[in-house]
Specification:
Distance between the termini: 55 Å
Number of domains: 1
Oligomer: single chain
Strand content: 15-25%
CATH architecture: 3-Layer(aba) Sandwich
CATH superfamily: Thiamin diphosphate (ThDP)-binding fold, Pyr/PP domains
Number of strands: 8
Shape: globular
Strand order of the largest sheet: 2-1-3-4-6-5-8-7
Helix content: 25-40%
CATH class: Alpha Beta
């Protein structure tokens, strides 16, 4: 496979310099290096700038309701376990409207990959505060500064029992590509929270802002990505220095592996068995 095999005739409509380009490039490269074909991949998108990628990436695509790509992705994976299922959201879509789905999919360890385009605001609707916006951040919806503390996707995922919890940056497409590859090959729910600077509306969290702060946690001496306590402590680090990389990874039974009905041939490939449900309908009559 080549990069062009995952491209359509439509061109990205993102703002010039948008961090979404880096994620798009990294994702396509990851799929190519994993030897996947477009027909083997389903991408489930939420609502937001990031989800315009449904038009630009050649694979099976589904545009869900706002905040709902995860349950759609989980359902698709259960129906066809042979598909590589990737959900994509912005930080508002993932941690605002979709927060409960995010937590419960992690609890069950559904075997999907979740890539969140985290620009720390709602940009499609022209720059409102999102759940990951920092306290004091001034936006159209918080002109005097946000009074709430920012949600922490890393610590939330770890506390919910996440088995693959990672952070990357669209300004480092190689690291992001390698992180996405590791996430896709992981058995279970894998989170890749990708910092994605919004060059139009977020003048604080810029590419330079991240370049000045980010360091690779997996290159730190003594860091063990299988130590959940160490990962949780790292997830709380924020300020002049911010860690990125694979915070935590550990094997655990997936949601599908605990369902005997899913053993063997994928559900979608089985013959439909017609059952008589008259008795069942009578009970609700």
């Amino acid at each position: 496979m080549k990069i062009k095999d995952f491209e359509t005739s439509y061109k990205p409509t993102w703002c010039p310099g948008c961090g979404n380009f880096g994620i798009w490039i990294a994702l396509k490269n990851a799929l190519v290096e994993l030897g996947l074909k477009p027909e083997q991949v389903l991408m489930v998108h939420g609502i937001g700038c990031s989800s315009n990628g449904a038009n630009f990436t050649r694979a099976y695509s589904w545009h869900s309701l706002h905040g709902r790509p995860v349950p759609t992705a989980v359902g698709a994976k259960l129906a066809n376990k042979d598909l590589t299922v990737i959900a994509l959201s912005g930080d508002g879509d993932a941690y605002g409207e979709g927060m409960s789905h995010f937590i419960h999919a992690i609890r069950g360890n559904a075997n999907i990959t979740y890539i969140t385009h985290d620009n720390k605001m709602y940009s499609l609707t022209t720059g409102q505060a999102s759940p990951t916006s920092n306290k004091g951040f001034k936006t159209k919806s918080t002109p005097d500064g946000l009074i709430e503390k920012a949600a922490n996707p890393m610590s939330l995922a770890l506390a919910a029992g996440g088995t693959f919890v990672a952070r990357s940056f669209s300004g480092n497409a190689v690291h992001l590509k390698d992180t996405i590859k590791a996430a896709i090959t992981h058995k279970g729910f894998s989170l890749v929270d990708a910092f994605q600077p919004c060059v139009t509306f977020n003048k604080l969290n810029t590419f330079k802002w991240y370049f000045d702060r980010l360091y690779n946690i997996n290159e730190q001496e003594g860091y063990n990505a299988q130590d959940v306590e160490q990962a949780y402590k790292a997830s709380l680090v924020w300020g002049n220095k911010i860690p990125y990389g694979i915070f935590y990874q550990k094997a655990r039974d997936t949601y599908g592996s605990n369902l005997p009905q899913l053993k063997g041939t994928a559900l979608i490939k089985r013959k439909v068995q017609v059952r008589n449900i008259d008795q069942l309908t009578k009970e609700f009559a």
